[in-house]
Fold each of these.
Amino acid sequence: MNILIVDDDPRLRDLLRIALERAGFTTFSAANGTTALIHARREAPDLIVLDVGLPEMDGFEVCRRLRAASEVPILFLTARDEEIDRIVGLELGADDYVTKPFSPRELVARVHAILKRSGRAVTPEMLSRGKITLDLRAQSCRVAGTDIALTATEFDILARLLAEPDRLAARRALIAGIWGPQSRVSDRTFDSHLRNLRRKLAEAGCEGAIETVHGQGMRLGSCA
């Protein structure tokens, strides 16, 4: 399913792109309202993540123009937390409202919920590599055919590595992707989750599933 991301911050657009694509969506983006309207007409997205605080034409106006011709689901994204802004957005036809800073996992969950409410089918997504298989919808993990109980954070770490198995993932990028770009989660906390995940995979017969490249990041190892 196609998601249009509209935000003038390139770093936030990239964060949203990574989170949504790892959840199985296809994405394209726009940095302003005019481009967003062009993409919406041309690409017919299944959902639009729309920042309110856009330059020149704000998200409210973009939503107003979209609603004149389309019922595409819209998730507003904004740094403003005033009740009047939420009311205006919903009255204009937005389906939900997320305030920055936010958890990428929460945003993906909101996207799934909106699509389900709107009747747009979201097919189950699987990630698989070697002995490891993840069901993203059921949040379940199997190693060599055996179910493995993972915490939500352990599952998220493994899913992000499985989504791009041959790419090095930087520690801070993983932390930002799981807990949000403004998170103050320490490396020690992340390492604790990673250590537990490695132990569970090893106990299931997948020793060395995650390898660390010193000073660069981590990726799936030979077992996976």
Amino acid sequence: MEGPFSRTELLLGAEGVEKLRRATVAVFGIGGVGGYVVEALARSGVGRLHLIDHDTVSVSNLNRQIIATVNTIGRYKVDAAKERVMEINPEAEVCTHKTFYVPETEEEFDFTGFDYVVDAIDTVTGKLALIMQAERAGVPVISSMGAGNKLDASAFEVADIYQTSVCPLAKVMRRELKKRGVRKLKVVYSKEQPVTNSRPPGSNAFVPAAAGLILAGEVVKDLAGAGKERILP
């Protein structure tokens, strides 16, 4: 019988889809990258989502954030994202946190309740605190590196943080994580040189989206236990 995730089941199997339905994923940062993470996780049938962001939708978000429309301007991003998730999968459980994740707010979150954590926040201090908290809790985490000031959506790669190059944010993260004794971290990063050094960074409709979809794809494959062994010869 055809259902909302029947096509996903053809790829991941019934067991994989059930694993996604039972999973709890926290997405920190619901912006240009994180919004597309949430979108793909919802359409993949992830059963429980925690959405963390204190920002509201602004008119400048319209060019790249999937939750941004003229009707959501001024609303909290987590509320707009939750509404979108529920329109895709009404059976999903969505918990929203109107919080900026920084070292000072990390105690608001119990990472032992998460099966996977997605880091799509912007600040180095926040990213480091998030990764360290996930490491202490023994929870898998994937982190987005820089997507601003870039135009090549095909330049993204999935790698361990210590195998990255070119990306300035990844360079800082490598140094700081090494100081903290973190031995590995799965990241999505781009080797594309920034086309401008504008501040705030320039962005577009396709580069953050590509990064977000790749992040979500890694989460789905890891949670469902999918890998090369499922690829037909």
